[in-house]
Amino acid sequence: MTKAFIFDLDGVIVDTAKFHYLTWKNLADSLGIPFSEEKNEQLKGVSRAKSLEKILEWGHKILPKAEFESLMFKKNEEYLSFVNQMTEKDILPGVMKTLDYLRSNGYAIALGSASKNARLILSKVGLEAYFEEIIDGNEVTKAKPDPEVFLKGIDALGGTPKYAIVFEDSLAGIEAANTACMTSVGIGDKSILKEADFNFQDFIEIDKSVIETLIKFKK
Ligand code: G6P
Ligand code: MG
């Protein structure tokens, strides 16, 4: 089999990571729980419910189920108010060039995201058609760092894990790809994503020769 590519969404394809940060910060502030960019790193790639559980844990708070659900709903409503304004201008630099290259060379491409808003976001920025398979937060039961989302992605593409190359901006996602024995490519801060097989600041750095290197790499 030729190699297949699995993309995370938030913080890899689009800059929605900043909207997640803002809306979690507002929620934490409203509960009087200290929240920082450093803490936010631990929420990247993590499902909505797990993220709220972590924030409450940091604040030593336990909430009744109904209140927990209502906070998740509120957070998502605020997040969606940003998402609804998104256009193709929100696609991160270099992403289009990479997707076009992979597609025109016949490589299989899937999305592997913890977000339940993934399809909405892809349609907002006009990228749905690039993905042969979309595995998102509605289809997984175990959050990253569990490899479920990526294993389902490669399975849907008809491949096996060692042929998969995963692009991720989160610690949890890199761990998930490594656990699945896939090639892990960190997008963003190398000092944070040190466990990745490869690191790049963004997709501008990922040219044709880099893609060839990723394809030849054996874990
Ligand atoms: C991604 C983001 C997380 C987010 C999760 C769930 O993995 O990195 O920050 O919490 O998706 O997103 P959702 O859109 O379903 O709230
Ligand atoms: Mg991400």
TrEMBL record:
Substrate binds at residues 8-10, 24, 43-48, 51, 75, 113-117, 144. Its cofactor is Mg(2+). CDD domains: HAD_BPGM (cd02598). Pfam families: Hydrolase. Its EC number is 5.4.2.6. The active site is at D8, D10. InterPro entries: B-phosphoglucomutase_hydrolase, Beta-PGM, Beta-PGM-like, HAD-like_sf, HAD-SF_hydro_IA, HAD_sf, PGP-like_dom2. One of its GO terms (molecular function) is magnesium ion binding. The record marks S113, K144 as: Important for catalytic activity and assists the phosphoryl transfer reaction to Asp8 by balancing charge and orienting the reacting groups. Coiled coil: none annotated. Mg(2+) binds at D8, D10, E168, D169. GO terms for biological process: carbohydrate metabolic process. The keyword Transferase does not apply. Keywords: Carbohydrate metabolism, Isomerase, Magnesium, Metal-binding, Phosphoprotein. It catalyses: beta-D-glucose 1-phosphate = beta-D-glucose 6-phosphate. Binds 2 magnesium ions per subunit. Gene3D superfamilies: HAD superfamily/HAD-like, Putative phosphatase, domain 2. Belongs to the HAD-like hydrolase superfamily. CbbY/CbbZ/Gph/YieH family. This is Beta-phosphoglucomutase.
